[in-house]
């Protein structure tokens, strides 16, 4: 079928707009990468946009040599792994239970879950509740409050209800109890859905800085994103050095004049962003499935 001039013009315009959108998304990342790989004193003069003018790894040596950010990385990795596993497990169990239409008070329970998704008590009641539960200034403040997601529960429940009833009924006829049905039938068929929601949950835990900033005061328990937020609002290098004698010796050995607060900030952004960026290309297809999950019932 031959396309008209209007169709060709529309395709050219759409392609140009998408290219501009891609450039607007990629350029800030390239700019920060160039600054992080450039000597700070030279970058302060301006003119560094896409590639470093005076290449150096001193900025990354300062960042990776900081005990605070290394500890923050371990906290973030542990939080992401534990939080994702706990979140998927708890939410999946609730979704499986509420997927049974014969469950007593099912509509009441669904309404209660829906209310928690639409409304919340606010930050102060949440803080008071976490304080009464002894979760303030604890690693578990990252895990337990986010162990259940109402939105993810509805998505999981919709997916489970889309599984043919004949599969579940045949297992029940053979004597399978509910947990056996969940383990042998529901979970194997739910792998694409669990991968998509698990990816969303992991990204949420990795990128969250709020909990560490408001619910944790112990510097050894803050995640890397909270450390980055503190660093971006810092006014001098003391936030980076943190009174660490080894860090001070490292900075002196790398020529302090070549390291600036801005260059260290950009290096920290790169160090915190690159791991999750490396995961995206391999799991991108699950985002498409995640958007479609529950929208079409087979």
TrEMBL record:
Which terms are listed as keywords in the entry? Answer: Cell membrane, Membrane, Transmembrane, Transmembrane helix, Transport
What membrane topology term does the record carry?
Answer: Multi-pass membrane protein
Q: What are the subcellular locations of this protein?
A: Cell membrane
Establish whether keyword tRNA processing is in the entry.
no
Where do the ABC transmembrane type-1 domain residues begin and end? Answer: 73-272
Q: What is its main location?
A: membrane
Q: Name the protein family.
A: Belongs to the binding-protein-dependent transport system permease family.
Name the chain's protein: Carbohydrate ABC transporter permease
The organism encoding this protein is Paenibacillus filicis
Taxonomy, top ranks, is: Bacteria, Bacillati, Bacillota, Bacilli, Bacillales
């Amino acid at each position: 079928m031959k396309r008209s001039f209007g169709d060709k013009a529309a395709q050219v315009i759409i392609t140009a707009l998408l290219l501009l959108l891609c450039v607007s998304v990629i350029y800030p990342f390239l700019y920060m990468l160039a600054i992080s790989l450039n000597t700070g004193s030279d970058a302060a003069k301006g003119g560094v946009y896409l590639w470093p003018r005076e290449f150096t790894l001193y900025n990354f040596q300062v960042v990776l040599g900081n005990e605070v950010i290394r500890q923050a990385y371990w906290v973030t990795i542990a939080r992401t792994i534990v939080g994702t596993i706990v979140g998927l497990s708890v939410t999946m169990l609730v979704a499986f239970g509420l997927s049974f239409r014969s469950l007593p008070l099912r509509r009441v329970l669904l309404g209660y879950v829906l209310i928690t998704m639409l409304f919340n008590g606010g930050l102060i009641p949440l803080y008071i509740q976490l304080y009464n539960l002894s979760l303030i200034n604890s690693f578990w403040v990252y895990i337990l409050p986010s162990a259940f997601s109402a939105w993810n529960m509805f998505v999981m429940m919709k997916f489970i209800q889309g599984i043919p009833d004949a599969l579940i009924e045949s297992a029940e006829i053979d004597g399978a109890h509910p947990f056996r049905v969940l383990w042998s039938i529901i979970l194997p068929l739910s792998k694409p859905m669990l991968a998509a929601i698990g990816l969303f949950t992991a990204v949420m835990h990795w990128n969250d800085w709020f909990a560490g900033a408001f619910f944790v005061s112990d510097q050894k328990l803050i995640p890397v994103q909270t450390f980055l937020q503190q660093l971006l609002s810092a006014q001098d290098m003391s936030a980076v050095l943190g009174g660490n004698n080894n860090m001070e010796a490292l900075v002196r050995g790398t020529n302090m004049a070549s390291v600036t607060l801005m260059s260290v900030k950009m290096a920290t952004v790169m160090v915190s962003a690159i791991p999750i960026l490396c995961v995206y290309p391999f799991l991108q297809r699950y985002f498409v499935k995640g958007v479609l999950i529950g929208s079409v019932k087979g």
